[in-house]
Design goal:
The complex is a heterodimer. Chain A is an alpha+beta fold. Helix content of chain A is about 25%, strand content about 30%. Chain A is built from 7 helices and 15 strands. In chain A, the strands form 3 sheets. Chain A has an 8-stranded antiparallel β-sheet. In chain A, a hairpin with a 2-residue loop joins β1 and β2. Chain B contains 8 helices and no strands. Chain B starts with 7 loop residues before the first helix and ends with a helix. By secondary structure, chain B is mainly alpha-helical. Helix content of chain B is about 70%, strand content about 0%. Classes of the chains: A alpha+beta, B mainly alpha.
Chain lengths: ~270, ~190
């Protein structure tokens, strides 16, 4: 086959440029608006402020030592893979409850009480449930729409062999929301006095956070950064499994949390 | 209530005065180009969105240093490109232009299979040649031909003097032509 002469390179480049199907631009307005309407409080300023207090300085160095000892790479701005650790002096307010006061987990702001089946039917992401015999079925399931893609929470009350209930009668709380491979779990805020350990949980990156209250800040499916508070004011294990971000909260040790995490199975696999 | 002026200079001035609604307008107006400029540097949509978002926030906080009456877009794109460069992670492992292209020949009326094959081959050759080119060449070509940035905007995004864009582009095109010729001879 005889090829015709090559067209002008500039014309070819212009044509190529016209044919590139760029990924859709995420709408940045909301995230930018949120950032510019709150007082400037840069990570650097917060870190410097942290270092000014001697007791905090020792904590920071201890945390860095812990991270380095775990063989982790700490980049500029404390990036650990797709997640950034941000120290905060004041934690954002936990959302108030919207459920019926008095019932298990109703005051934790988890959304509407529902059944597991209904909740699973309302989301597009894969939902996982723990299959540890000691846990059994959750005592209450909540579905909330305060996070893009929807959030499912499984609340477990007092049981033999489980730690004592912490808040609202809930001993263990499991929270799930979408955060796929391209919607990286992007940022996590922890308060002073909290330690973070990076782990591999069920094949995905995980974070064991122990100590004081903290907030998870992640990127939702629409591209916005969203802050999501823990509810039980205790230790938590958060990890990414497939396209789902999962979190276990409770008065649990690292080993107990990992044992529960290891028992998670997809609800679609269960049927 | 009178509609606020949408003239860019006026909008920038309002934003500089601390009006977040005005800055909303600027974000809405420029987020497409900001995202794409960042995408060409980071080659990753998530990183590009992060870079663009961060750049807008920095731009807002840096408006005090913006020269009144100057064009806003080149100034913004300089910040975007800088953020993208800082954020770029593992870019070397990513292929160039990993973006779906519309089928070559879409605009032809009933193109022959031969014509489609030739067009596709040439397009693949061209993308491969751009892929082999140094980053500075790739970016100047992409900014000018893919994003249709002005010389001033290209210079800002490349962090180089505006007067050097033409010569950089000329050298990049010459290298691309030579590479394509070598590839054709080889086949």
């Amino acid at each position: 086959m005889t090829q015709p002469p090559r067209p002008d390179l500039e014309d070819e480049l212009l044509a190529l440029g016209r044919d590139v199907a760029y990924p859709a631009t995420p709408d940045l307005r909301r995230a930018v608006r949120m950032a510019i309407t709150r007082p400037p409080d840069s990570l650097g300023a917060r870190f410097r402020a942290l270092l000014r207090a001697p007791y905090r300085r020792s904590f920071v160095f201890a945390l860095i030592a812990l991270v380095l000892a775990a063989g982790l790479v700490v980049g500029a701005a404390y990036q650990l893979g797709g997640l950034r650790i941000v120290f905060v002096d004041t934690l954002p307010t936990v959302p108030s409850g919207t459920g019926l006061s008095g019932s298990l987990g109703a005051d934790l702001g988890l959304g509407t009480k529902t059944t597991l089946e209904e909740a699973v039917g309302m989301v597009d992401y894969e939902v996982f449930v723990p299959r540890l015999p000691a846990l059994g079925q959750p005592d209450a399931v909540f579905f909330g729409r305060n996070l893009a893609g929807g959030q499912i929470s499984l609340a477990y009350g007092a049981r033999e062999g489980l730690p004592a209930p912490v808040t609202g009668g809930v001993a263990i709380l499991v929270t799930e929301f979408p955060g796929g491979m391209e919607q990286k779990l992007a940022q996590k805020s922890v308060g002073p006095g909290t330690t973070v350990e990076i782990l591999t949980v069920n094949g995905g990156i995980g974070f064991w956070i122990e100590g004081r209250p903290h907030v998870i800040v992640y990127r939702d499916p629409t591209g916005y950064y969203v802050s999501e508070s823990i509810r039980l004011v205790r230790n938590s294990l958060a990890w990414q499994q497939g396209n789902t971000v999962l979190r276990i909260e409770g008065d649990l040790s690292r080993e107990e949390a990992l044992a529960i995490a290891a028992s998670f199975q997809s609800t679609s696999a269960a049927h | 209530m009178a509609e606020p002026s949408t003239d860019e200079t006026a909008v920038v001035e309002r934003a500089r005065g601390g009006d977040p609604d005005a800055f909303d307008l600027l974000v809405n107006r420029h987020q497409d180009v900001a995202f794409r400029v960042a995408l060409l540097v980071t080659r990753d949509a998530d990183d590009a969105a992060d870079a663009a978002q961060s750049a807008f926030i920095k731009a807002y906080r840096g408006l005090a240093g913006f020269r009144s009456g100057a064009p806003f877009r080149p100034w913004l794109l300089a910040i975007v490109a800088n953020e993208a460069r800082n954020l770029r992670r593992s870019a070397a492992r990513r292929s160039w232009l990993p973006l779906p292209l519309h089928q070559a020949g879409d605009d032809l009326l009933e193109p022959s299979p031969e014509a489609l094959t030739i067009a596709d081959e040439r397009r693949r050759d061209l993308i491969a040649a751009i892929d082999r080119a140094p980053e500075a060449d790739r970016l100047v070509v992409a900014y000018r031909y893919f994003l249709d940035l002005s010389e001033a905007e290209t210079a800002a995004a490349l962090d180089c003097p505006p007067g050097t864009v033409k010569s950089r582009l000329s050298r990049a095109l010459a290298r691309l032509r030579a590479d394509l010729s070598r590839a054709e001879v080889a086949t």
